[in-house]
Amino acid sequence: DGSGSGLDADTIDGQHSSAFAPSGFGLGQSLQQVLINDANLATMTGMYYLQGANQPPNAYDGALFVMSYNAVWVNQLFMDWRTNISYTRCCTDGTWSGWNKITSVAV
Known about the structure:
Blueprint: E1 11-12, E2 15-16, E3 35-38, E4 46-53, E5 62-70, E6 73-80, E7 86-92, E8 95-96, E9 100-102
Parallel strand pairs: 3-4
Antiparallel strand pairs: 1-2, 4-5, 5-6, 6-7, 7-8, 7-9
């Protein structure tokens, strides 16, 4: 775009490119920048750094992947960075399940 052209190559329909993935939802950045302190509050699809309440038992911190239909129908996958153990859980009609450990066998 040139000065006075009325065009802006940095926007799409008037919104800056940073408003779109991969810059949002934990994509294209360190997960430490997307800190969440309560897993129950992570109801929007994205990737988060979780350290706090409602995380799996004995977990200190890790990556939380969230896939949501809306705020009351949500699936979460938690990957513990210190133990390499993963867990899943879901929110069904507003009620959270417990965490289920994903068992694995080394190959």
